[in-house]
Protein 1
Amino acid sequence: MSAPEVTVIEDIRPLIALVAPLIGLIGIVWAGEKRRNLRETFTFLAAIVQASAVLSMVPLLLGGGIIEFHIWQIFTNVPLLLRVDGFGLLFACVASLLWIATTVYAIGYMRGLHEHAQTRFYSFFAISLSATMGVAFSANLLTIYFFYEMLSVSTFPLVTHMQDKEARTGGRTYLGYLLFTSLCLLLPALSWCYVWLDGGTVTMDFLADTGKVGEFSQTTQIILLALFTFGFAKAGLMPLHSWLPGAMVAPTPVSALLHAVAVVKVGVFCVIRVYSDIFGTEVLRELDGEDWLIGIACATILISSLIALSQDNLKRRLAFSTIGQLGYVVLGATLATDMGIGGSVLHIAMHACGKITLFFCAGAIFVASGKKYVSQLRGLGRRMPITMGAFMIGSLSVIGLPPLGGFVSKWYIALGALDRDAIWVVGVLLVSSLLNVFYLLPVAVTAFFRTDETEENPGIQEAPMACVVPLALTALGCFVLFFLSDPLLRLVKIIE
Amino acid sequence: MMENAIAWILIFPLFGSVACAILGMGNKKICYPIAVLSMAGSLWAGIEALRQVIASEEHTISYIFGGWTLDQYPRGVGIEFYADILGILITLVVLGVGLIVAIYSKLPVQEETPGKEPLFYTLFLLQITGLAGICLTGDAFNLYVLIEVAALTGYGLIAMGSNRAAAATFNYVMLGTIGASLYLLGVGYIYIKTGTLNMIGIQQAIEANGLADSATMQVAFVLVGIGILIKMAFFPFHAWLPNAYCNAPTTTSCLLAPLVTKVMIYVMIRMVLSVFGVEFSFESTMWVDVMPWLVVVAILCAAVMALAQREIKRMLAYLIVAEVGYMVGGIWIYNYYGFIGSIFHIISDACMTLCLFLGAGLILRKAKTTKFDGLRGLFGKMPLTMTGFFIGGFSIIGLPPTCGFFSKWYLITGGMVSQRWEYMVVLMFSTMVMVVLFFRLIERIHLAVTESGENLGHGHGDLGLNAEQTRFDEGPLSMLIPLLVSATIVIVVGIYNQDVVSLIEIFLSDYNLPRGTGH
């Protein structure tokens, strides 16, 4: 994705984006439960500093440069290096901007439900966002691995926030899957590259070492590819997806930002990095056994959509929908064409905006009415018109209808499939979109067009403003992203 | 004084122990400052010695006690202290751990063994003398003497513990003595064959006289090897360790757990590389074929046994047995990275075990129990202690950027280069066991759920405890600060691992070890 002849600028801004939440963390802990307004101010400040550091790098990137920051020489020839390229920056923008929205939302949600241990909640949230930035800006495989592990561990207290039996089950599944894959699949793969790649002098750099895996035998390459693909289990590829529905026991802001945007997108981000910058599209296309990965991605898309159809719990339905949408991103990467990978990258942003809206809505419904199940939503459209309207927009974007963001990325993934002469993949995309319609639209339709006879109409009862404003904004974002798709594509160098 | 830094390393604790014994008769309170000061002095001498070793041309310095000459061939019988980079690194670990534990010991020693302070600190400092001496001596028989110094003082230190400590000590005495005797027997065979006890002398004699195929030397190797394996609690010779460490006083387990087994790993590396030589150890014996498999069994069993424990200290004791397996494996997979991993793991395992045992001591003091069931809500009560403790735990699991990640990385890389897949798989397995062990602890502290899944609280973070049980109540600073320092060291050693590894690489460059295709 990144052309080799770019100018490299040494700049501290990636580090600022990384460290801002950690400094904010000190303020959050210092302010504590008793001064909660001050505490939330620190979260805000951290989020705003992070977002402005990230956004200020956009012009440089559009001007054709990349930014590097060398933190520490961690191994003899592998440094802990931050590098900002278009792909990483796009992801960082999405995560940091949505963090601001989520912070507002979390204030409404957590206070509305009188949740306990909010200081712990905001603290670990900040650490997770720092780790997310680290992944987005990593320049080599070891750096990415460091932040990847940091993210797994720092989200555990968020997943088990409720501290009850359900939380224990969810937390165990969560860590079990994530740490098993990263320690037992990823680490050997990294070690393999470190020892054998290029006579052992390799830095596993995303820019300098693209395609060097090609010197291995075909079998080795396939094994490595599988270890990487499944090792990054945050990508939620089947059969290693069960942690995501399990993690839905977390409070909704966590499900919204972490389990629809940050954590899962880190997974697919890493997969795309490995595919496009460690293997490289040419090596991948020549790899014989790579087709079955396309198959697994397609199977994930279809199976998870079918499971989503059967879920009555709204958050679980959204979780399975997320697994399917992550399948799209992996699919685009496995196609190993520029268009496909470009579509994947875009889908990270598009799906993030759509899915976070849906989760915000699910949380707002829970705060306002205590309802968790799709079957309970009858007549809710009249009580919560803004929320359900936003839900509708989010659904349409995830389904992929113009003029909403989700359309653009699906379009490019389809183009990538055509480049690869894989017509059947386009068929899968169509079927899956249809399934998306089946499991998402009924939610909004039930809420708007079916009335609940047992309850009288109590008038409008929206969730607190702090919940409604962010979800309205992200719903608006789905429109904006559609019209912004051109500069976004330029950012990731798909079009010049 | 500067040029005798190696001698000063030992003189400080040795004379400190004498001072404790004599002055302690008059005033018991003077023992603690003496212990801390002699450890600080010794550490200072150790750092000075490291600087000298790095500055010297051959990266070694030698000090001959009593002026016995070593000129004649073979290098003669005498007390030579010989510090190369490996020796001095491990010595520094011993001294650093010793200093931290000495500072930590103030309250536990007063409370757990009242009235016995002079005795305790005398043995404490002698223990350090023995352990540091093991790392520095250049003489195989002298090594035996120092092993016994460390062991005998260790028996004394452990026996001061709870009622069951006496039985545990007796068990330890029996196995420890068998191990030391086997080692001594082996040294006897070596002396018969080579006519010298000096380590360099032995190595020269083996090369000069072509003793690689000598049956006597083979027997000597096996005797020395098994003796060391018993001493380091390598499975199945581990039976003495869990009871000894769990029933010992807090300070004793904090001192012995990080050091004793690790120093014996050092002895194994020293024997394999410097005394018998790479060629003899890896080409002429069967060990290189057998040991990796024994290691696999050892790690597997130790990890499973750790999983079965319901008490923090016992769990940690079995973890040590598993970690011993890691390091022995690193040696016998026989390549450059394995050795880096093993040596680096000696250092990092000492740091993280120290951190965990210091934490366990604090937990025991405040919660009055180290059983898993009594830990609920401890994070709210003592957040700093638990943070320190879990940094140690994360390091044992091997999460970056703690030092445990880097040693594990080199060990895995070593397994990769030698293509010992069984070793790699068992490393992965035990890593997962450690994940279960520590996150089970975190769960137990963090959640309001019993083992059987019964909810104790009423939702919304209610842990089912009263206000008194969750009130912020950290341990005393004299114990808390050493814990936090050791937790910081765990991270700093991880971040600065390059500096340590480059020293280890200088040491290993003298030996001809296979490196795989890379580098």
Protein 2
Amino acid sequence: MVKNIIDVRNLSKSFDISSKEPGLKGTIKHFFRRQTKSLKVIKDISFEIKEGEIVGFLGANGAGKTTILKMLCGLIYPSDGSILVSGYLPFRRKENFLKNITLIMGQKQQLIWDLPPIESFYLNASIYDLDKFEAKKRIKKLSEMLEIDEELFIPVRKLSLGQRMKSELLAALIHEPNILFLDEPTLGLDINAQRNLRKFLQKYNKETNATICLTSHYMKDITSLCKRVICVHEGAISYDGKLDLLLKKLSPVKEILIVCRSEEDAIKLENSGFTVKNKIKNEITLKIENNSITSSLKAILNNFDIEDLFINEPPIDEVIGKVLIKKDYDI
Amino acid sequence: MNLRKYLNVYKKFLHTSLASELEYKTNILVDLITAILSLVGSIFLLSIFFQNNGYIGGWKFEQALIIQAIYTILNGITNTWFNPNLTEIVKHIREGTLDFVLLKPIDSQFFISLKKINPSGFLEIIIGFLLLFLCIKINQINLNLSFLTLSLITISCSICILYSLWFFISTTTIWFVKTWNAIEVLRSFLYIGRFPLNSFSFSLRIFFSIFIPIAFITTIPSEVFLGLSVLWKILLEVIVATIFLITSRKFWLFALRFYSSASS
């Protein structure tokens, strides 16, 4: 049986937030008498993550995804509840715990700006107490996986965002951690760079059985990497389970574009009782429920003269967008 | 603590920060010129003060030069290590990059206090030592083992006090987010350290000894050089330095509990 590597029980976090009224009067008032209030950003959440799992955290901006990630890696003290990561209390930041984890943030960087990435890698290697030989071996292995070579010797400030992100990944993985916390790792990357990064993460997970916790606003990251998602809405978990189940629940119908041999066939199909989305000449788009797709297609192919047929999933962003604004999804 | 690992990491710190700084040759040259001009300006200012009767607070110009030499060495140390690292703490906290430091299996205070180095500060240290040797010659100071030990102890204590004060202020960024001004105030107070403590009024002497111990930083080491020091003052400086170091360490660990990291 695969063991739980992350165990979160009734976790809450509150921050003191100050607010300011607009205008000069508000600014002066804010300077002399700051109004602060305690805001509960994470509300009594519980979940477990198994070793080797890739879990996506979904939520709107400010939902609390990054705060959860930062509590899991020990950067922020929880206000209430308990967290165990790899058997450690993260916020104690014990050396052995830190050697097991890594945090990669798409919008922040740890590489030394004026020097080639290779210098940062060797610095990190010395921090993780790796000897030169071992460090060299790991850099070679990871740079091959990430498909970077010459970039290792060019100052970071002269690298493209995609090359920089690959180097950030290498710097963050040189100690071969078995838990990866990724906060929007593909932010700002072009489509090819995003795809390469996802490919790398899949490969890394497969080869090392590392557990990956990921937040991203790019749905492609989530759909291609995560079988399981945890949806966060206003600091609470609104859904925790398989991604495909969520998609089925949120999007119970598929759109089927059928190209008929003639316009007459299309008219016949239009009047045969299926839900029609639209019809243009001999092309007709039907909406069919997921659970009756097979029987419906069988009936259509048997009774109508069909030239071509396309099954379209509704756009994932649209579907997931529904999760971000809804409080609870019981599946 | 694994000493070998920390030495290795420090070697890497030295290497990477020197390599970073050497990327900008002109900047280093400008820094060197600034250091020389700053020293010349300070000595000129001192000579003006001593022009009338040759004494300030019972100190002769030649004796006051020792304070200037120690100040220059300490300022060099400040510019070499404290300035590039401790001002960076504010940036780390404001931008949330402290996250990377805290998640490394290394002492975070060690990391943020020593990661960078500004090589141009070395020149100031060298100039300071040259001036100090000159003062030793002018004042006909007898170099013996006890003198060297005491001066080493007092200068080390001065460095510790200076570091702790600066680190303490930078740590408050965790709550106040922006503390550049407080650091500037500290730097301004340090300028006062170029003058003998006796040259100030009684109330200011108390202030600079108790509240902001600038007096300990330059005057006591200088007194050692002139053979004017008394044991209790040296012991007091050692105690003050130890208390400051321990307090700054405890304060950092305490403050980290309140670190909320910058939002993404």
Protein 3
Amino acid sequence: MSTLEIKNLQVSVATENGFTEILKGVDLTIKSGETHAIMGPNGSGKSTLAYSIAGHPKYTITGGSVTLDGADVLDMSVDERARAGLFLAMQYPVEVPGVSVTNFLRTAATAIRGEAPKVRTWVGEVKEAMASLSMDPSFAERSVNEGFSGGEKKRHEILQLELLKPKFAILDETDSGLDVDALKIVSEGVNRVKANSDLGVMLITHYTRILRYIKPDFVHVFAAGRIVEEGGPELADKLEEKGYAEYVTH
Amino acid sequence: MSSLPTNYLAPSGREEAWRFTPLNRLGGLLDSSVTLLDHASLAPLQLPAGATFGKIATAPLAQNSDEATLRVRSAVLQTSALAIAANAEISEPIVLQRSVAGSAPEASRLLISLGANARATVLIENIGSAVIAEEIEISLATGSYLHFISTQEWESKTVHLGSHHVIIGKDAQFISTVITVGGSLVRLLPTVEYSGPGGSADLSGVYFSTSGQHLEHRMHVDHNIPNCKSRVNYKGALAGESARSVWIGDVFIRAAAEGTDTYELNRNLVLTDGARADSVPNLEIETGEIVGAGHASTTGRFDDEQLFYLQSRGIPEEIARRLVIRGFFAEIVSGVKIESVEERIMARIDAELDAVAK
């Protein structure tokens, strides 16, 4: 049983006019096996939360803490966070020309597991995970995310989730840009990982659509850099009906 | 001026074509008081059926105003000629290995010709230490296909001035992969013209310049015939105090060349302070009746977003950095499609990266 604990997290980003505070004190605790949906309007700081936990250099932590089983996540480098068990499925996965998916996955798995996976079992493992995400085997030889469609990029993110087996996954708008078929495939992938492990999930989304496929245990409404309301799955139904209007001050 | 022994003029450095080149490092190649050695330095390792190699007295196929090329033409009496017979389909690469005379400035002329519908891959391996001016002319007859690979794997003192000119026939395809990792000063002129419609040229190249190296590639694609295609993709990385690279991409679409489809790209990755990459794409268009024409040039530092992505998957920073840089080169090197050559070049790049990292 692991715990990801975010306490009073405050984050700023550098702009032309100096620093702008985006996260204004976020408190959130996720335990193994739990799925937390973070829902909110565009620009509320949801992605900033995701990238800050992952350690993107663009964001400056100005206060608060993030701990994984008591270990100070904010003190770790980006790769140390991943090796500690955090995974961020990105909204806009980055293209890395000239680096094949095969080479990338193997290098990542070697880093996460602390030793190179055995060639024979590894090839099968990758093949199986790709097949279950309806990914063509030719994917393995392509450069990481280069020329991938939006849906292919998201499947590739979930493929990594399956192979790297983190303790906690942050899914940043994984549903955006997916048609219904792709959304189902991707959601099934996440559910498969949940079923086979004790994965804790932070599911960041603007829409309730993905919650039909990935059932949250908790729903948190995010607005203007903090969590403004919390509840169970029923809160998502309310958002579906009424939108975010009541949380947004104009 | 009339006192000059031949019909070329030594550049002063003010000419557009020479303004980036350190003329004091040419090792006498453009010095009219130096006689270039006429030395046929290329020979095939093996000659498959359908291919012949020999020396012939031949007039140049195309006009050329490059000073180094004019010196080669006046120095070389017999041109080495590689001919691929019409309809010959040669799957194994024909390797021409360079064996230079030594440190004396020398000249080399090579003619590669493919008959109608012939298919071949020709690899020129430039190894060793040389001061050399060379001209390679390539003639592709109707429907032929040539993958032309030139690797500059020179040792560190080499000076190499070269012209690679191809004349692409009707529906013929020219694929070129140029890899320049060695030498003190390398200045190559890959140039293209067409002699029939439907011809296509795909020019890709990569260079890695470290301290003390000047690596220059000056492309010129002359779209002089309708309905021809060209793609240029050159990438370079630089590391070290005095590392220099120059890439010039001239594409000229003449009034007659309706239906032209062209795109050229140059990307430079500057890995350390003090290195300098010049990149100058030029597109001159005399007709609007074309399929497409574009160019892009970027020169920048390491992409931190790529680094973040790889690190966020647990890959330590140094390994992630190396993965991205290797990927940058591999995108072009993998186009060689000869595994042993690709491995040799990547190993050299790795060794140079190791040296830079120290």
Protein 4
Amino acid sequence: MSRLYGDPIEVWTRHGAPSQFVWRDRLYVVHGVLDHWVVAREWWKTSENDPGERRFWRVEARAGDQGGTYELRYDTASDGWLMIRAWD
Amino acid sequence: MFAHLHLASAYSLRYGTAFPQALVRRAAELGMDILALTDRDGLYGAIKHAQACLAAGVSPVIGADLALSADEDGGGKGERRITVLARSGGWAALCRLVTAAHYSGERGEPRVTREMVAAHAEGLVVMLGPASDVGHAAAARRDDLAAGLLARWRAAVPDLVVELVDQYGYREANTAARMLGLAGAAGVPAVLSNAVRHLAPADYQVGDVLDAARQLVPLHPRHLPHSTSHAYLKSPEEMAHVAARICGGDEEQAARLLATTRQVAERCVLDPLDLLVLENDEPELHLPEIGRNPVPLLRDRCADGLYRRGLDRSRDARERLAAELDVIERKRLSGYFIAVAGITDMIRGMGVRCAIRGSGAGSLVNYLIGIGEVNPLDHDLLMERFLSEGRVGLPDIDVDVESARRLDCYRAIYERYGEARVACVSMMETYRARSAIRDVGGAMGLPPHEIDVIAKAFPHVRAKQIRAALSDLPELRESGLNDRALATVFRLAEKLDGLPRHIALHPCGVLVGNAGLRDRTPVERSLLDFSMSQFDKDDVEKAGMLKLDVLGVRMQSSMAYTLTEIERVDGVSVRLDEVSHDDTETYDLIGTGRTIGCFQIESPGQRELVAKMIPRTMHDLIIDISLFRPGPVNSDMVTPYLESRHGWRPVRYPHPDLRGVLAETNGVVIFHEQILQVVHAMTGCGLSMAEKIRRTLDTPEGRSRVRVWWELNVRPEYDRETVERSWEVLDAFGAFGFCKAHAAAFALPTYQSAWLKRHHTAAFFAGVLTHEPGMYPQRVILDEARQCGVSVLPLDINRSGRQWLVERVGPRADPPAADPQSPARIRVHPAGLEPAGRRAPAPAWVGEMGRGYGLRVPFSAVKGVSEAEVDRIVAGQPYTSLADFWDRARPSRPIAERIVQVGGLDALHRLRPGGPRWRPGELTRRDLIAQVGVLERGMRSAAQLPLGFTEHIVPGELPEMTESEMVEAELSILGMDVSRHVISFHDDLLDAIGVVRSAELMSLRNGAEVLVAGVKVATQTPAVRSGQRVIFTTLDDSTGPVDLTFFESVQGHCAATVFGSWLLVARGVVRRTGPRAVSLRALDCWNLLDVDRVWHEKGIAGARALLGAAPVSAGAVGGRRIEYANGFRLSPYADIGPAPGVQDPPRRLWHASGGSSGPAPTRRSA
């Protein structure tokens, strides 16, 4: 079962893809990218400037003995990452 | 190098956002050497793509993205689409498949089946992408189903590929990988594409708006699941990333995918010159089949023509003919002329009026073989303007036919040549301000009636001018549209600027070809079910196909109707084409400016011009028509011409050598033909070259090139000053002149219509009212008819017809004047009872022209009446009573009521509404309306009522309709005031405030400041010399037209009122513009109903105060003038169409106080 979170997290990337992230004070190392997709924002609700897009990554990662599948989201407009959900 | 194989341009209607030219340019910048165009549902952009590729040195691939018909794969929602590409040499197969798609299923919803694709597969590559049935099955993870579908495609199509797309959407890469696996297992090659629909990433927002507009859904993620910024023209590097993503890092597989894509692209490269036939040195034109060698055939027919036209002894004619035939034969166009002559003969044989128009009138061949009736030698028309040695491009012959029978002509052409050889030309309607607001408003979920109001508030401007117009134009600034809530609508609407919206039948172009026509152009069904090429008129020419323009002209229908009415009523058969062209009385009519209803010369500006110019010959009319164009008006040719014509100024020529060329127009350059002759006379370059030079003058760059050419080629004997002065003429003239051949072709129907107005006045107006050829609403035509002495007769169920009918109502000739009490003269105008001082100073014969005739209001004028009802009513005439009418004509109840309301049964039941005294016990229109209800209820109850019962109508308690109620009913049902002019109800007020009538204006001095009033009947904002937006408005005040000009200086306080009112009061300064011409420069204006209300509430002092108050301006008109290099300036809001604003009578026409139903018809002391 997956759980939804929505916590802000810190992410390090390599070649544009996440390689490590810190979530709830633990450092996770990414072992593989399972999926990656991009969703455009509902730009018509916002003002004239570019609303940006949301880039989703579904990755396998481990932090010490704990591991699982995690869905991370990067928002180009706010330049911030969120932990969306986790299967662990 | 990567090649995009799947690409939608803006010619994928309401889907793509970039034009082929921009896409090709970007592809070339990215280093791509091949680019495909695969528009949705058609090849609308194919020729433009080929052309852009040729210019950029890119090899074109052309295909189409087609929808599959609802199929047997049994699952999932949404459309299934495949992409087909023409292999090298497969253009014909692609055209035929696209045509077949449009001919199966519903019109406008082209569909293909696997069988249809298989039938054309010989020349095609078929790509199955994620939108295909296979792709949908793969996305649904139903691999066995996907494999089965793929196997069926493979059995049907030899050259099949699987197309992988990944635009970074949810699970898209996954599906692509799955399809790659399927393709591998089935042994089908896989290619990579990006299903491109945008030029740049940010364009996806426009795409979203188009998706919403196309599917009629609001902008919402639920309806637009595919909003993505990745569907743009990606670079080869970016596509390599996509390949790597799909192949999951398997580099070898990714490389193979890209290599296969390249191979397919190379297999499909077309030679652009195969499509752009005209670019070849020896173009292989697509000509109609004549059956035998057309060259001697045309020669024979021309020789016959020389005798028939009486030109066999003319050396000029023989030499001219030889020169023309030489060019025609060298261009191998003989067959085209034979075919066109065959068509015009056939049209005339059908009894349809047919006239040549445009540059084709300049060809003697056209005259000799009977295509046109204008002899070019009579008017010094040049063939080179139509067809010349140096001219790249095809001649096209334009003919005008009766508008009401244009489609009959089309049908006859289709019948003669066969459906497969004929197609109409199409045209792309693009987004402009109004249409963009409509579609975006819909996508944003605004209520339809609000969208309608907002869209109609805008002038006909480009979509990207919407927000500029909102701040520039006073009437919009005041409108409340500048609201924040609408800001998003306007912002999005601007983004749609210029994108193709839908395809429509070109108003006149017809392709006449041979059996191979559909190998050259895809064809679809138009709204009227004519087959229509997907190419527009430019594409058609570039593709080497010849067309004929058959334009429906309402004036031709109007004149045809007039001729039948003359014959029916007077028993005279008029042969209009044989009428002499020097009838003094006709020119007298034109010279007085009484030209409302006449072809080409009825606008306020033209009425002013003809009254100043006073044409006396056909040649004068040709000049008049050419002068009234933006070019001559803007380069100020009109004043010098008129001054020289009337001898107020000596005629001047840039050089004596040009006297011969310019003498006919008093030294002023007016015609294209003169430019050709000036260039030829001063350089000796020949007329064909001169025509090329003239065309080059179209653009600013062209003008600077011609400038250099001119310096180099002018003969040495001309001095500096002459060269300079003649260059100024060429430069000023630029592209704005008028083709004399065109004017000569126009002048004929202009003269004919004026001749009919002068000599068969009532029948002329019957034609104009029936076919509405002009710019004025019917009420203006009716009023003009009245002033010409024609009576207007009310609707009568026993006398009215389908269309306007002429009736004899008295002796034809001069007085005794008709008895004012006779029912025939139903409108007794108060002004007519005034002293003679109020009469029009127009010559007395104007009012006598139509004496003795009446015009009967037709059934078709009744609002909401159906054609079937009209047919039944007319077939059942005459009727003996209302009940008889109800039984046999079987009108619907509302129609029957409306007919009673406007007096259709007055004569039958001897009603006299509007009279001063009604006594209880007299039958009224109201009683008849009640009786209609009785009849309808009787019909609904099964029992048959006894005849006597329904025949008997009991007079009721209610009084008869008043005059004002009658006029109100007429305006709302017929759209015009028949019994009395609506302005006459305001006579008391207008007299009290001292309004001057149209008929009196002529007697006022220049510069007098006056008040005028009337019904607004025309509003225009044409291009004028100053570059201002000038509003020209015509009011009808029952004694004639009042022409008002609103300059920008007064629009701040006037624009909203001018556009927003139907009845206007205006203050203006009299401007005498000619012996019989007068117009007013407006200073201020008011809605007459507002003045009327103040008058009723506060009395005459209040009304005077309102009219005397200083205007409050809503700010000036903004916007930058569009400036041309030769000094010609244009307002960005100059508009060719009618201006926006109120055009119909409002529901309330006058101030109603305390239960009264309108102003009393009796005079009150003010």
